[in-house]
Predict the structure.
Amino acid sequence: MSEANESLWWLAASPLIWAAHLLLSYGVAAIFCAKLAAASGSLWPVQLFIFALTAVALAGIALIGARGWRRHRLGGSKLPHDADTPEDRYRFLGFASLLLSGVSGIAVVYAVLPAVFIGSCR
Amino acid sequence: MTRGKATAAAGPPDVEPLEHEPPEQLQRAQAERLEKAWETPTGFRYWSAVNNTEVGLWYTAMAFVFFLFAGVLALLMRLQLATPNAGVLSADHYNQAFTVHGSVMMFLFAIPIFEAIAVTLMPQMLGARDLPFPRLAAFGFWCFVLGGLFLCGSIFFDAAPKGGWFMYPPLTSAYQPGIGADIWLLGFSFIEVAAIASAVELIVGALKCRPPGMRIHLMPLYAWYTLVGAAMIVFAFPPLICGSMLLEVQRAFDWPFFDPARGGDPLLWQHLFWLFGHPEVYIIFLPSIALVAMIVPTFARRPISGYGWVVLAAVGTGFISFGLWVHHLYTTGLPGISLGLFSAASSAVAIPTGVQFFCFIATLWAGKVKRSVPMLWSVGALAIFVLGGLTGVMVALAPFDFQAHDTFFVVGHFHYVLIGGAIFPIIAGLYYFYPIVSGKLLSDRLGTIAFWLAFVGFNVTFMPMHLSGMRGMPRRVFTYPEGLGLELPNLLSTVGAFVLAAGVAVVVADVLWPKKRKSPRDPWGAGTLEWVQEMPAKPWGIRSIPEIDGRYPLWEQPNLVRDIDQGRFYLPDAEEGLRETLVTSVIDAKPQQCQRLPGPSFIPLVGALALGGFFIFGTFHLWWAAVLSFVLSIGIFWRWLWVGSAVKPERATKHVGLGLELPLYVSGPASVGWWAMLITLLAVFTAYVCIVFGYFFFWTVRDDFPRPGANGPGLFWPLLGGAGLLAAWALTLLARRANGNDRGLRFYVSTALAMVLAACGAAALLAGPWATGLTPSAHAYDAIVWLLMAWTVLHTGAGVVMLAYCFVSRLAGRMTARHDIDIQNVVLFWHFTALTAAITVAVTAGFPLTT
């Protein structure tokens, strides 16, 4: 429960995975379309790449979210986690990282949809 | 409350205030000493003040002056557009007016007002005497004033920028020969220095200057939003600094970064600008809506519902807002997959934004709402912002945007977002927090009248713009023909604009009107710490720094005000007559250090003038004067550090009250200075990464990159240069160790060698493109290689000056084995120098091998 074992980076972890997912999807698609394919060229290698990347990203986000969930549920305590104790700080940071994992997961799912529906570089 | 019940494993139990009131005589003596230490200078020395109460006030006032100035320009534009083919403004003046209006609102009002409000309020909210770098905040303010006056002044000489607030090349690189664009590029680069300075101050403040016991999950929501907003500045402003540098170098020295005829591409500017520009919108929005997050619980008479959800909203929006920039480039012919990805992210950002609004609504629903002027403006803000958010989701969809792009629909949309998301909340905050600054209350009657004028005027102005935009009225065109159905919506917009302006005028009158109505303490019955402040405020900020037990200490901790006032908590005294505050740990706010703060000084003002000279002389291509100003500013910064930072205390520790003994000097990651250095370096590194991005961007979009026939910079010189810089880095590490072991000779030799090797390495880096005949004005490839080298060399130059500083500092006895802040921070700087050098060599020498 000591603060030495706690880090604010856990809050950033899931959003950073979302950011990496978006940038890699965008970068790979842009380079593929500019360098390797004609404007009407099929996008399937990129689609495949984005699907694989999405699976990895969602798995990472799920792990971080599960860690957050366990911390949030420590001792079966309920929200709002506002007591002046290290336990509630621990629960709160877990809860916040759970929520951020949720929104990051949704944003990753949003980002994979274009790769489902768009099959060319047009 | 679980005061004192924590187990041993969870750390020491919370501290109670002194049980008995200190003798009255002692209290009076303490208060006198505090007053003396924190006294505001008078006469002309008033302008040397650095305390947050003064700097914050000047900052806020100046930002409002710029707001009114840009507002007048808006009214002029509305007069011009009231009727078709009007002649109020010529096309050229209209171009200047909309450019200066947008630029001033964004760079001189919206961003600075965030910093101004945060600098004013954060210390009060955190029970800190001041933030850790008061002189840095003052420096930021003076940079802002100087840069702002320079930019605004240009319009009176008919020399203002006229390329729109986003300055797209090639319009601004090839078709606008005057100095307007240079004023924009250099003036705002200068102001961005100020923004990053404030961001450093606010991040370190939120993380390290909270009162004891204010654990991270008890921090006021405003501090969360400020933390996120300031962190966003650190990563969002550098792309603009990088882009401005590229564009200015093209304008001044003809390096063709944006010239497609010579290997460049104007779209690079759009990427860099909007990498800054979109997060910027949220940098404006988050700290403003943060004011609403403070106001709502006060008037709902209950804690915020869903504190964790609001934190999610702030942090989540902060991240996702960096993934939206391409939605400004929908019509540039990118592949559909790119549009889809950014359309998805643009829709996703609505989720966290919506979450916090539901939290506010839930809080109001669950509470007993007390009607008030701040509440009125807050509710108005929510209503307007929601409409702007909805049109935002519309333009996030690429097919709709193809139709609405560059029309008045977009103008309507972003004014709903910015005025609902920033102006209304800020005015709500003005009415709410006014007593903190002045000890007086603003008028309820005038506030209500102003609100209705502004609310009605706003909607009458901007609602019809959606319609005129859909009917095809383009933005930034100075007039329109008759008979297209644009007359009525435009006339309505003009009438509305003047009603809105009348509302703003009433607010200004209310603020300036001499007031008799003195505010009682905590006039709204709020629960957060800033309201323990005496009315009017004392310069010391808080009489003693309390132990915090909850999110709303004034509601939850009995006798808090009494205990603070009687000096029953920490630092109730200033025995040595010095300004002091507590530094605490990031997560649990455990006291770690008693931090001495610098007092009034003209150095920030003089430093800003000197650095401003560099940018202003540069605008007029007076290169020698610019270089001279730059050297002068380095000298001033040297002096600033020498007399004002890393001062050796008279003893190692100090008793700060309640039986706590804290160190007066810490270095490395434990010190606030090290964190400030790290944050600054992250910003610098981000700007550098943007140049590297430019390199690969050119490679992606151009078939002639690297330039066919170019055989530079080769391998030999870059590798030699990189080796020299890495060796200098290793020697810097040795120097730190030698200093730590008190091996003087070894320290001096390593430092001196490091400087020599750094200079040689830098020279070798420049020798690469020089020896292989790369000509920066010939092709974008040559230009960007030169720029990567030049950036690395400048970075190294700064590192050499810092090493020299440490050398002299130890020689003068300022730095010792134990008092080693200087070398610790310089080593951190050299980590980044080594990283920069390694990437520069890998990219410039290594990448051409692969193509």
